[in-house]
Please model this.
Amino acid sequence: MSETTLDAKALEDYIPHRGANILADTVTMNAARTHAVSRTRVLPGDPRGREIFGRRGPDGVACWYEPFLAELMALTGVPLLREKLAPLGHVAVFSMISKIVFDRFAPLAGEVIGEAVITRDRGAFTVFSTKATIDGQRILEAEVMSGSAPLAEIAGGPRAEAGELAAGTVPAAALFDWKPAATRFAHTVLSADAASGMLVAGYRYPLDHPFVPGHFPGAPLMMGVTQWAAVADAAWIAARTFGHTAVVAQGTIRRPSGAEILDVRDLELVSEGGLPRIAGTKRIAFRDKVMPGDAVLIEVTVRPR
Model:
């Protein structure tokens, strides 16, 4: 094999995403298929609609919303697995993201250079070391673990329960006016206890959410990083409810029946210019899928950072 550069159209043969969800402009893989570099710049009026992955920074500049920058790094590495997974009829499915550090806000209009290096490739799991830079300055570092499964298996199996959510208070729109409505993943507050620092929020993934067509085609699932974003949203609500400006949060997403979907350890949320920014997360473990129409409970416990 030789070094190969893939544009967004060519990437459709390498990752199970479409449209805006492909994220990168190009991904270049080395001949050994152990190292990949992505290049991505999202300008105003982006024809692929990738501005939805942005947020407003404290200076009013459009920046990457942190979970989607981590998704971009994970997808930088996935094309390296094609030769391993395609003969099995499998696609990559992230099982864990860990050791995440965000250094600063990353402008959408800046050219993000992403790197993914395979550090372990054993059996069903592959681990990537990833980082992103703009103008030579690091903006993100993370470790990604990927498993695999047939797309038919992802699409099939028992339908996840839709469930019902109890009525609760609606978070003030001003808490989230720094990002698009579609990327706000905590709709109601069901309970809050200042003594323990615990807050429970509710969310239902809409059937017509703009991410549905591109993740995955024919097998729509809520993106794993949006589950992480839901925990961050609940942590921000908790921080403001309990009077904190920066917190460390432990979080879990469950079905109304109690079945666990996601576990998040040590999510560090800071405030810059009155706006939240994820500064780091020790570990995100993906347990189960969320499908369009599903309702979930987001439980966080926060302490001042």
Observations:
- The longest strand covers residues 137-150.
